[in-house]
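#struct-help
A.M.: can someone run this one for me? Single chain, 209 residues.
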Amino acid sequence: MGVTTKRAIEVVIAEKNPLLQSSLVKIFEGDERFALAAVTSDGERFVEAVERLPFDVGVIGWEMPYLDGRGVLQAMRGRSDAPRLIVYTGSPNPDVPRQAMTLGAAGFCSKREPPEQLLDTIIAVAAGRMVFPFIDVSSLASDPLAGLTPRERELLAALAGGLTNQQMAGQLDISLNTVKFHLKNLYDKLGVGNRAQAVAFYLKGREAR
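D.P.: on it. Structure tokens below:
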């Protein structure tokens, strides 16, 4: 019987900082436990890599150009072929791990940790585990309006004011497609399926304050 060697974990990185990107490449290339399948500089290119390459674990930033970590996680939801995703960020926002978990990430690692911590997280996630810092689980059911971006709040208020998508695009000086993209994220976060439900949610939230 031959000896079975463990297959390297195939990883794709989405990291906007070129310096950190190159240091991560060095770390992975020097470690035979991993095979670096691709390195991208933003979320859109990461999603393209998923379409093109089969790989095990994606390491994504939270604040990225074109498509941020939240957008990547939303794009991957429900895909049977999606890699397991780790959010790797220096964001000081203490709520990011909770948001990442809620959106379906498999792990979270802060850039303030030593690089070995990221490698350990990837190994654990590739083995099917979830890796997160302590999260107060009672906060997972907290006010969904608190998780909205300033732009999403603007759009929600505009919806409640009865504006059409076209009017919102004009008022906020963004394209119609951008309005639709933000509305889809907004509906996902609030767990609603349409404009009327979103407005009802908004009005109910205001009454509760």
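A.M.: thanks! DSSP finds nine helices and five strands in the chain.
D.P.: also worth noting: The chain has two domains: 9-138, 143-202.
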